[in-house]
Write a structure and sequence with these properties.
Elements: E1 2-7, H1 10-21, E2 26-31, E3 35-40, E4 50-55, H2 56-59, E5 60-66, E6 74-79, H3 80-90, E7 95-103, E8 106-117, H4 124-132, E9 151-160, E10 162-163, H5 166-169, H6 189-204, E11 214-215, E12 222-225, E13 237-242, E14 248-253, E15 258-263, H7 279-285, H8 287-291
Antiparallel strand pairs: 1-5, 1-7, 2-3, 2-6, 3-4, 6-10, 7-8, 8-9, 11-12, 12-13, 13-14, 14-15
Helix pairs in contact: 1-3
């Protein structure tokens, strides 16, 4: 069993693990010839499950994998906290690679980070001029440190993992969700998060006794029970709603507060008949197509 790859998009990989770490302590990573899959399953009872599938080229290159299973599949259980720390330290590196290793019969994911540093003895511009002068073409007199990038630091961080046999994960399948009532391109996520966080803090400031928190929602929008009003958790929700006319709104309502933010002119992507069961006929019968004909509050999926 072997796995080794260069990480080409460390920023995306780091952001993904950062998001996953908010939802669980461990992630199941499934590697095969073509894809990398990240799955987070709630430890106990109901919760948020993540099923993210990326093409190997999204974050890796020089991708080498080999195992005795079909499609050279390798299943790993990886703790998210050390993986996130290792990737965060790799953000400032010149390059990074990852491989599956074993130390004292314990499997590890080893992240190797290479940092190239420029010499402080000779400025880069002066070095370029030196190199352009024909009479200075002889490098035999150059000393270490006379040229940029002559110092290289290699850091390796090892993350203990568990190699999962195929039989132990065979019962885990992609969660089934009903077809959405609305599909819409979101505004910038940082803007959406900023407003959501601000609304939540404002709502929390109006109460003193938090109750339960539960997630929910379906279709094109969702609502999150903030548990803001004592004895009445159902009356305090952060609501996300959208329609098939390019509009999205987010708001919160409590006993003492009602506030909402709204976006207009967003894009509702067209469905691809090749991706919908029944082709053109299936698109015409799809819930999102029928939602286009509705107006007013009936047009909103919450």
């Amino acid at each position: 069993m072997r796995f080794k790859a260069s990480i080409t998009n460390i920023g995306t990989f780091s952001k993904l693990t950062s998001s996953l770490s908010l939802l669980g302590k461990v992630v199941w990573i499934r590697l095969d010839d073509d894809q990398v899959r990240f799955t987070v399953i709630p430890e106990q009872g109901p919760g948020t499950q993540v099923w993210a599938v990326l093409s190997k080229d999204t974050i890796f290159e020089e991708y080498n994998i080999k195992s005795a299973t079909p499609a050279n599949t390798i299943n790993l259980q990886v703790p998210l906290a050390p993986l996130q720390r290792a990737l965060r330290s790799a953000l400032s590196g010149s390059s990074a690679s990852i491989r599956l290793t074993k130390q004292n019969d314990i499997p590890f994911l080893s992240l190797t980070i290479i940092n190239n540093t420029f010499s402080s003895r000779v400025p880069l511009i002066a070095t370029e001029e030196f190199a352009r002068e024909p009479n200075n073409a002889d490098d035999s007199l150059a000393e270490p440190g006379d040229f940029p990038a002559d110092r290289q630091t290699t850091i390796t961080q090892s993350i203990p993992v568990i190699v999962l046999p195929a039989a132990s994960v065979s019962s885990i399948h992609e969660p089934r969700c009903r077809d959405p009532d609305v599909h819409i391109m979101l505004p910038p996520l940082l803007q959406l998060k900023s407003i959501s966080d601000r609304f939540t803090k404002m709502a929390l400031s109006t109460t003193t006794t938090p109750t339960s928190r539960r997630g929910g929602g379906g279709g094109g929008g969702g609502s999150q029970d903030l548990g803001l009003v004592p004895g009445s958790s159902s009356s305090s929700r952060l609501v996300l709603a959208a329609n098939m006319h390019g509009a999205l709104r987010i708001g919160v309502t409590t006993a003492a507060l009602k506030i909402e933010s709204r976006w207009e002119g967003l894009v509702n992507p067209e469905l691809d008949p090749n991706e919908v069961e029944g082709g053109e006929e299936g698109v015409n019968r799809h819930a999102s197509t029928l939602m286009k004909e509705k107006e007013g509050e009936e047009a909103w999926a919450v």
